[in-house]
């Protein structure tokens, strides 16, 4: 504790110093006896408490208090005086003094200091809670903003994805089809970015599904090839067909991308970066709980950079540990990598030596049914309709137009509505003739729960497919108990929509 004591009487200053050091032996006391000394001392940055006599020759006590409040507004200020009196004491407290102690009761100084310091701690804790509350409210606002942006972005992406599917059926030139594949990949990447933003802003885990590692690594390799310096050669090697893993493609892309960026920083003069994928059989390690035996897909990120010494390898996954210069890195990259891999029930191995480069091995458990293979890249024939009568409700004109075009091109009769109220009016009019309703969940004037509940009230057996521009579960919580409602996330492909539509219509 650092204490400033304004006192013109040396014996009184010595008495107070003795009392205080009996209680706090390490306390540093700066004794000042004049206005000039006090005004210089009070501007120090590490003051914990100020004691002051009330009567200082040539200096007004309340002026000293005002100076303290100017330079150290949160620092406790206690008057220790024999001449202050009750009226002056009240005046001093109103002016901002924390407390006062009469000199004929010096034993009170320690409790008064304790009380003042405790009040400061409480005030600091209160301010910290207020800051945390404001931060929490800001994060909540960001989450709400991200939800609205995600809905709008997915509405923009939906007609693009659907239109690409329509164009694919009308084109045969290999060059045109290659261009469509590139556009489809870009649209899918945009949708994945939106999902990642929602996962971050609203919390929770991303959506996982069985997939091949090649599905997401190929895109990361192409991105690294385009963005890393030309002095770094980026290669991609894999042996055979990788087993399926249950994964969130967006999160695992982040893992490989983070490791690729770290490799770049380790090769300022250039080198090579190789990403390898292989199927491996992991043997259990006695005493290890994270290395489960069995079939794994191993993703290796190999660089020819500067490498790391053993003492650094022991700490690389610690949060905020970084070897980069100030402002060049937070130390969160590798801790994020480790967290994502653990969340996928996998583990990491690292091999490195100074001057010999670094290899990160990521082991991800294969799906139980390893005989299954990833989806065939060949295009399947899209399911067709049998003249069924559909109602399409969406307040976005572009989405509504393209969806209706796709559905009509596959043999369905489609009525459209641009709002929930218009859709409900059509259901009342044609409830015995409609086979199914496709409706957006986020429309002005209605939330998902309300619109579907009112549809069911009009036609209890009506089959419904609900489209969502937000992450699944956000707005569907209130309608989870409703039966026979199928949910699809925007942007939805023509294949996914038509396959789901056929399945729901054919269900008994």
How would you characterize this protein structure?
It is a single chain. By secondary structure, the chain is of the alpha/beta class. The model is unreliable at 325-332 and 371-379 (pLDDT under 50). It has 14 helices and 19 strands. Helices cover 45% and strands 20% of the residues. The chain is elongated, with a radius of gyration of 35 Å. 31% of the residues are buried. The longest helix is centred in the N-terminal third of the chain and has 62 residues, at 109-170. It has a five-stranded parallel β-sheet with strand order 2-1-3-6-7, sandwiched between helices. A five-stranded mixed β-sheet has the order 9-11-12-14-13.
Task: Provide a short characterization of the protein structure.
The chain has 508 residues and is an alpha/beta fold. The chain has helices at 10-23, 35-41, 61-71, 85-94, 109-170, 174-202, 214-227, 249-265, 310-313, 333-343, 397-409, 420-430, 448-458, 494-506; strands at 2-6, 28-32, 49-52, 55-56, 59-60, 77-81, 99-102, 209-211, 232-238, 245-247, 271-282, 294-303, 347-352, 358-365, 389-393, 413-417, 436-440, 464-468, 485-489.
């Amino acid at each position: 504790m650092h204490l400033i004591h304004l006192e013109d009487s040396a014996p009184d200053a010595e008495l107070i110093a003795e009392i205080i050091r009996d209680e706090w032996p390490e306390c540093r006391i700066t004794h000042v006896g004049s206005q000039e000394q006090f005004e210089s001392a009070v501007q120090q940055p590490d003051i914990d408490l100020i004691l002051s006599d009330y009567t200082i020759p040539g200096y007004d006590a309340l002026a000293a208090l005002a100076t303290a409040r100017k330079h150290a507004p949160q620092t406790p200020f206690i008057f220790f005086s024999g001449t202050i009196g009750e009226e002056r004491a009240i005046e001093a407290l109103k002016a901002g003094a924390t407390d006062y102690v009469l000199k004929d009761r010096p034993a009170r100084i320690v409790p008064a200091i304790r009380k003042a310091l405790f009040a400061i701690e409480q005030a600091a804790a209160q301010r910290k809670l207020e800051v945390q509350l404001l931060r929490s409210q800001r994060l909540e606002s960001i989450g709400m903003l991200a939800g609205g942006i995600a809905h709008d972005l997915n509405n923009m992406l939906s007609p693009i994805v659907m239109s690409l599917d329509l164009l694919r059926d009308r084109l045969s030139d290999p060059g045109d089809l290659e261009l469509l594949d590139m556009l489809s990949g870009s649209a899918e990447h945009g949708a994945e970015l939106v999902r990642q933003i929602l996962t971050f802003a609203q919390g929770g885990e991303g959506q996982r599904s069985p997939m091949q590692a090649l599905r997401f690594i190929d895109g990361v390799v192409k991105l690294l090839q385009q963005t890393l310096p030309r002095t770094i050669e980026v290669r991609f090697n894999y042996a055979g067909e990788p087993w399926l893993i249950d994964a969130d493609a967006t999160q695992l892309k982040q893992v490989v991308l983070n490791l690729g960026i770290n490799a770049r920083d380790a090769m300022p003069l250039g080198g090579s970066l190789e990403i390898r994928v292989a199927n491996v059989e992991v043997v259990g390690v006695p005493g290890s709980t994270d290395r489960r035996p069995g079939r794994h897909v191993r993703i290796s990120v190999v660089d020819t950079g500067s490498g790391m010494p053993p003492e650094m390898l022991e700490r690389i996954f610690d949060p905020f540990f970084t070897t980069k210069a100030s402002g060049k890195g937070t130390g969160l990259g590798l801790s994020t990598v480790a967290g994502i891999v653990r969340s996928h029930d996998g583990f990491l191995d690292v091999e490195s030596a100074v001057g010999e480069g670094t290899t990160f091995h990521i082991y991800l458990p294969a799906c139980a049914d390893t005989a299954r293979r990833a989806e065939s890249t060949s295009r399947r024939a899209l399911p067709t309709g049998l003249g069924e009568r559909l109602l399409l409700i969406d307040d976005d004109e572009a989405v509504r137009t393209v969806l209706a075009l796709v559905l009509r091109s596959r043999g369905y009769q489609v009525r459209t509505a641009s709002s929930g109220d218009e859709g409900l009016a059509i259901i009342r009019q044609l409830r015995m003739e409609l086979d199914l309703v496709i409706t957006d969940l986020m429309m002005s004037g209605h939330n998902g729960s309300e619109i579907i509940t009112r549809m069911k009230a009009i036609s209890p057996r009506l089959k419904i497919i609900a489209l969502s521009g937000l992450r699944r579960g956000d707005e569907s919580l209130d309608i989870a108990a409703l039966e026979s409602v199928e949910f699809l996330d925007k942007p939805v492909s023509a294949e996914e929509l038509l396959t789901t539509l056929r399945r729901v219509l054919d269900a008994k």
